Description:
The protein has 338 residues and is an alpha+beta fold. It folds into 2 domains: 8-207, no CATH class; 222-337, Immunoglobulin-like. Helix content is 43%, strand content 19%. The protein has 11 helices and 10 strands. Helix 5 packs across helix 6 (102-120), helix 6 runs antiparallel to helix 7 and helix 7 packs antiparallel against helix 10 (185-207).
Amino acid sequence: xxxxxxxxxxxxDGLFALSIRLVVGWTYFSAFWRRLVLENxxxxxxxxxxxxxxxHFLPNALGIKPLIEYLVTHPEALWWAMVIFTxxxxxxxxxxxxxxxxxxxxxxxxxxxxxxxxxxxWLGTTCLDEWQIGILGIASGFTLFLSGSSIYSLxxxxxxxxxxxxxxxxxxxxxxxxxxxxxxxxxxxxxxAFIFLMxxxxxxxxxxxxxxxxHNKSIKPLIExxxxxxxxxxxxxxVYRTEGVDVYGSFLIGIKLSDVTGKTVFEMNGEDLARLxxxxxxxxxxxxxxxxxxxxVIPLGAKGVINLDLKxxxxxxxxxxxxxxxxxxxxxxxxxxx
Length: 338
């Protein structure tokens, strides 16, 4: 009877990690399955385009915000990134389920989970959804690197069949089996400590979950107003939605301009905003601000410049006014117009 070079402890570890391997594998392969097989979500300008979801990560991403901003301002590069990302998820997930080059795939799991954590760890309306997915993915990837696969895997099948590549020096590092390290305890300790510290840091950074006051940036919409100008009876300002639910937009139902006495000198309601021409909105990212049925819809991560014709000779370019934006929820955002 052929005896595998996989030692008993590693065989047991890989066996115990089988459920983690299968679930983590499906988690990533299902992303590929959903986007290309069940429904094509890689078509720009169609509902559900994955690039728009990626744009939602932008406002509060940690460390990788410049990369995300570059991609969402370059649609072709974004499309290629989403295609490559989806294919990588598909291969990582499928190979992990099959137990093929398990340790190499575990590095992929670790990297993909790190991207999810840094990009979208702040999202989650009822729970810390994306943060939990990211940090658990990192821990799972590390664990699967240590355990490798066991009996129920293609790695073990190739070893049992004595394929030549399984006898190479690199196979234990990329596939499965006993890692050629005399003492793994320091590696396990420092790796686990790093992941635990990453857990505490990101939990605090994104949600205040360690000390202080808990906060959730996915519950209420927040709109930032910048670069407000009033010239030649035209009002121009930039809006950027940085918080709130990612699955639907902020619905702007009012824009008001008032003078120092509080008197309204210009106003638009939801129906007026719904009739805005797309030419009056200059979007900067893939996710777009656009007129809805009864309001102006501002998705999470959308940024754009809005230009309004005031049509009122009583408004002076040199006076001070207050610009107020009103959401359907009742939330208001204000900015001075000097």
